[in-house]
Amino acid sequence: MYSYDLEDGWDVVRPLGGGPGVAGVQVAGFRCRPGERLDMRVLPQPFVTVVLGLGDAELAVDGGTGRQALGSLVAGPAPGPTRVRGRHFACVELKLSPVAAYSLLDASPTDMHGAVTGLDDLWGARGRRLSERLTAAGAWSERFALIDDFLVEQGSRAPSVDAEVAASWSRIAAGRGRVRVGELAAACGWSRKRLWARFTAQVGLTPKRAAMLVRFHCAAQRLCAGEDPVEAALACGYVDQSHLHRDVHAFTGWTPGALAGMVTSVDTDTGTDTPRVTEMTDVMDSAELNGAERKTHDA
User: Fold this and answer.
1) Which residue blocks in the chain are alpha helix, DSSP H?
2) What residues of the chain score a pLDDT lower than 50?
3) CA atoms within 13 A on the CB side of 225
4) Cα-Cα-Cα-Cα dihedral sign, residues 263, 266, 270, 275
5) Whose CB has fewer CB within 10 Å in the chain, the N or C terminal residue?
């Protein structure tokens, strides 16, 4: 069963219930609607984003390393100023929590910050084969099952983060960033120094930076949805509007007001546990997606 939605020119399919049977992963299928163009700013977010392109279309990615043409890509939690553009594009998108990314991606977490890169840098030939199989699949149910199998296998051959690091991340996420490092250390029975070192090595962010990013993401969701900055600051635990302004500018280079109405990588649905539309079976499957793929090949 799936939810089906329209978002900023995209047709979107999500499995109801969250996604694969791998903790810390959300999955969705996207297709650029006929006649629509993608033009999106990538904002810092508290997860690693993996995009597996379907078909031959590529995205033009402008970032710190210049312009890249990528069919599949990965963006770390803090990719730097990045703009993504394209048309006739379809993909499966994975959002991996930093804890899940440590086990599922063949790279150090610290290597995934500062840029958007091609997926070949992480999964190599396995990633290419997965994209090919996803493209050839005839239904979304088959694509999501392929993703599930791939992630289970990938996770079985990689190390896991320390239980204390995983617990600290969970507390940061549950508290929307409103937690002190001393509280995290006390809860897991480590010194602040040990927690800081292990967390940074395995998550790729310091505990303090992770908390700031989670709180910023809460605010960015609300701001991009058009919420008043004062209300967003209050809801997300900022001292005042100027505190919010400093964080938004530090993470994006923009003001809170500039985010309103901007097309970004942030999901503006703050109630992500509740499907936004009615349930569907495999209605939007091969006929829908393959139509977009035929246009891709003809373009």
Assistant:
1) 98-104, 120-136, 140-156, 163-174, 181-188, 192-203, 207-224, 229-235, 241-252, 256-259, 286-298
2) 1, 270-299
3) 15
4) positive
5) C
Q: Could you give the angle at the alpha carbon of 30 between the alpha carbons of 25 and 31, nearest 5°?
A: 170
Give the per-residue pLDDT at 260. Answer: 81
The CATH code that applies to domain 2-159+270-298 is 2.60.120.10
pLDDT of residue 19: 62
Structure-block tokens of residue 264 = 């970004």
Entry pTM: 0.84
Give 50-99 as a DSSP string.
EEEE-SS--EEEEETTEEEEESSEEE-S---SEEEEEES-EEEEEEE-HH
| Closest among 219, 222, 220, 192 to 208, alpha carbons compared | 192
Residue 226 burial by Cβ neighbours in a 10 Å radius (0-12, 13-18, 19+): exposed
Nearest Cα to Cα of residue 14 among 288, 272, 294, 289: 272
Comparing CA positions, the residue from 189, 136, 130, 129 lying closest to residue 162 is: 189
Query: How much is the pLDDT for 296?
Result: 36
Tens of pLDDT, residues 82-132: 899 998 899 999 999 999 999 898 777 777 766 788 888 788 888 899 999
Q: How far apart are CA 275 and CA 18, in angstroms?
A: 10
Give domain 163-259's CATH superfamily.
Answer: Homeodomain-like (1.10.10.60)
Residue 175's identity, in one-letter code, is G
Domain ranges of the chain: 2-159+270-298, 163-259
pLDDT per residue over 265-275, tens digit each?
887 654 443 32
Of 234, 208, 239, the C-alpha closest to 219 is 234
